[in-house]
Amino acid sequence: MGLMEFLHEYDTSLLLAVGQHLRLVGIALAIALITAAPLGAWIARRPQASGPVLLAANLIQTVPSIALFGLMIPVLALVNRGIGAVPATIALVLYAQLPIIRNTYVALRSVPADALDAARGLGMTERQMLIHVALPLAAPGIIAGIRVAATMSIGVAAVAAYIGAGGLGLFIARGIATTWDTMTLAGAIGVAALALAVELILEIAERRLTPRGLRSSGRRG
Amino acid sequence: MIVHMMNGFILRPIRFMTAPILNAYPASMNIMLPTRHENGRRFHGDDGGTSHPRHAFRTTPVRNALLAILLPLLLLSCERDDTIVVGAKAFTEGYLLGHMAAMMLEDAGYDVEEQFGLATAAMRGALETGQVDLYYEYTGTAYTVYAKGSDPAVMSDSAKVLHAARVYDSAEHGLVWLEPIAFDDTYALLMRDSTAERLGIRALSDLARKVNAGRRLRIAVDAEFYERPDGLKALLRHYGFPERDVVKLDAGLAYEALVKGEVEVGMGYSTDGRIPAFGLRVLEDDRSFFPAYNPAAVVRGDLLERAPAVRTILERLNRHLDGAAISALNAEVDIHHRDPRKVARRWLVQEGLIKQR
Amino acid sequence: MNEALTYLGENLGAIGARLAEHIAIVGAAMIAAVPVGAGIGLMLARESAGRVRGIIFYLLGLGQTIPSLAILALAVGVIGIGPLPAIIALFLYALLPIARNTYAGIRGVPAATVDAARGLGMTDRQILRQVELPLAAPMIIGGIRTATVVAISAGALAYLIGAGGLGDFIFTGIALFKPEAMLAGAIPTALLALAADRCLAILERKVSQVA
Fold first, then answer.
1. Which has fewest Cβ within 10 Å: B197, B200, B247, C59?
2. pTM given for the model
3. How many domains is chain C built from?
């Protein structure tokens, strides 16, 4: 079956799969951001807490994705959401914690002390310092963390097909089951293309959000 | 004791790439483990963060962990009450039947949501808890795996198996078995025709004899078939031969492995179109190990209460689908690589079961 | 809890066997991936300049997004079932982090240091062995660490193509809704990954102290 024929035959299923995949990853990232970025900021202020928090996030990474997805099923079956998108999303949220927490933490801690002192000297409150000084300076680093989390999630979400969450992983799984490389490639290339697109978008965002003073390679007075 | 797996991967490249910029701010080069490098002034550093009257971000790890779990639950839990959720097991025939059910119900005006592609127990669990409203299950599977029955007198009679499954499910789980479709799709052990001829194996007892006589015959099965009460381990006991060369893998790969000669015996489903196409033969179950497996829609009682027409709609399928037809459809998907979604739709339109769109 | 313990007791032998298979597959893949990956990273670090550098870095990172599942699937399509396609797939998958980190590590060696060494009359080969590699070593080992952990995780999928490993228990658990089985597969895998990560972290620290 040629490429054109394949795309024609599977047009509906492909679109559905891409939609499912994006929905899974999109929701998971949004939630991961809400939980992980503040955590990163929190441990930036309390370095002594960073140890356990980062360790916990790291521990999650060592669990193989299929295992984490699988374990969500019995746990969530208790609230009648055992299969499909819900366990997959929760697992993805958990996986995305480490890159975002870590990068937020690092980015905030690398905010130059001089800048903060200057802000303090100007009479800014904690909150103002965070919003007007720390966050803008840390933004590129935080976005880098989101980028890593995003591309990682798009790949991990492929395995979610095995717990009924659909997505492009379904093409890979069916490709294995019917020993049909074209289908496997469709899934794999789809995932890579999605990751590429998301990377590009986030890179533009990162560039936009870098404060002007840092953009050129020159140094400040 | 921080495990910085991501350290080399992300942190250092970032630092490396932003080095020219950061070099302007010497204090900021301390992007290290927080347990070291207490020198220099840092963001909210040495006073331990106690002197701040107001925290800009009043978050705690516990709250965030809870959020991480609950938010997806809430966001993804919104589903309309009148939606019918149709499930399907993760193999070609399962998908075909699932699509057929979904399309016929949609055609009749219902709002349908698909939840396809799950293994048996996960699918069944979802039906029992109500996350899924119906899916096609096999009578034999329900009898042996869920009702845990093993009476040979029942298993060899399709009407009795259905009855047993029906009674069990309505009593224990409020599930209703609609009329089964009149074909049998049983688990089977397959061999290549040529190999089987050469070794003189026609039935499972022949296989047992050969293995007991010392022949090394590799058997490919998947994890589900291996463990199930109607699966390989039990079959080995029933036919009296030991487990010696068993390879476990994804079920779909068993056919390919058989064809390529990587294994001598492989698991399969009797209505799979690949059996005739690949020159494979089904080893006869001469000691009647497998029960009858007729597919039927298993529907939640509460669905039938709010939408009794579902029964009539789905049972219309029975008049049109038989073993030959399903085999042909399976072949279209597995051999000609057509999309089960479209194969199901084309067939339903052809049979006049749904309107052409 | 009781069921979990009985399950564990009954299947201890099988868990051990799957664990051994898992370690064997990952081990074989890593033994090949380390020299090849480092070599690729080194080659790339030498060649490119400017823009090409950025693009290569980018592509290396992107390759990581291809799910390990897909690479396993393609390997079995080419080679057939068994441990060999799994080893090859894991090998390919592990190449990227190692190559990426070697590349970054070598490029991170300050040009001034290399010039100084050249000024002292060292040959290219000597510079590589005595200056660049030691300085890049922490980063390279960091890459090996990442690669090992992801390979162990990806190895859980090797069951699908007939390569055995701890994924056997995980998939059995999913197919039959047996959390005990899932845990029997998931916990050893996670512990294996943690152990590997810890050992390599210690190595990384030692090497960076020397440098």
1. B200
2. 0.82
3. 1
